[in-house]
């Protein structure tokens, strides 16, 4: 049952945590208090979505991450192991090699997941009722038909996605495995589980705090532009600079709370399942 466990756990996590992803995206695409659709705070966003869409509104754009999950995680962990093996042949220290392997895995993962992210963000930004908005496949066809597969279409915001996933996984893997090796293990299985979970939780939280500006830039590029037909947010760093200049540096951290609520515990669970599944595979294969 080991290999089946990882995608199953991730599927459950997506279904439980997706509402936080919707809230995060809604916060990141709003442009300050002048935006007529802006939310006052986290609770106001939850309340507005519930009143307007009922609970179904929290599951806008859920199909793309579900479809992307298996190839995304397969690419992430497989390439991490391959990069780690290659970097073991270099003079890099083991701790630094883990971080660089995480960076490589994140960049590779970003290329795979970006088209799914474009569809997901466009659906999450759609304020029509859940029953009126297009399906994920219809939205993907619309994007391809109007903009194509390039950097204005299904691969829009790729540089921001590369930054988001690269930075996240560099810290995520590097912090987790370095700190885990530095803190003594416990003979008690429960305490050992809690030790790994706590390290994974901190790892996911720190990674989320560091990469959030890339996430905001990605949402602005992939989401609706302020003036229809006019592209305001074009590239990763141009979008960051624009958000900073017009809305202040705190705007680069929009959606941080729901992001941490999702990726803190989610990141811990994912690393634990990865370790236990890897151990199962090594013992049985």
Automatic annotation (TrEMBL):
<comment type="function">
    <text>Transports dicarboxylates across the inner membranes of mitochondria by a counter-exchange mechanism. Can transport 2-oxoadipate (2-oxohexanedioate), 2-oxoglutarate, adipate (hexanedioate), glutarate, and to a lesser extent, pimelate (heptanedioate), 2-oxopimelate (2-oxoheptanedioate), 2-aminoadipate (2-aminohexanedioate), oxaloacetate, and citrate.</text>
</comment>
<dbReference type="Pfam" id="PF00153">
    <property type="entry name" value="Mito_carr"/>
</dbReference>
<keyword id="KW-1133">Transmembrane helix</keyword>
<keyword id="KW-0812">Transmembrane</keyword>
<keyword id="KW-0496">Mitochondrion</keyword>
<protein>
    <recommendedName>
        <fullName>Mitochondrial 2-oxodicarboxylate carrier</fullName>
    </recommendedName>
</protein>
<keyword id="KW-0677">Repeat</keyword>
<keyword id="KW-0999">Mitochondrion inner membrane</keyword>
<dbReference type="InterPro" id="IPR018108">
    <property type="entry name" value="MCP_transmembrane"/>
</dbReference>
<feature type="repeat" description="Solcar">
    <location>
        <begin position="191"/>
        <end position="280"/>
    </location>
</feature>
<dbReference type="GO" id="GO:0005743">
    <property type="term" value="C:mitochondrial inner membrane"/>
</dbReference>
<dbReference type="InterPro" id="IPR023395">
    <property type="entry name" value="MCP_dom_sf"/>
</dbReference>
<keyword id="KW-0472">Membrane</keyword>
<feature type="repeat" description="Solcar">
    <location>
        <begin position="93"/>
        <end position="182"/>
    </location>
</feature>
<keyword id="KW-0813">Transport</keyword>
<dbReference type="InterPro" id="IPR051752">
    <property type="entry name" value="Mito_2-oxodicarb_carrier"/>
</dbReference>
<feature type="repeat" description="Solcar">
    <location>
        <begin position="1"/>
        <end position="86"/>
    </location>
</feature>
<comment type="similarity">
    <text>Belongs to the mitochondrial carrier (TC 2.A.29) family.</text>
</comment>
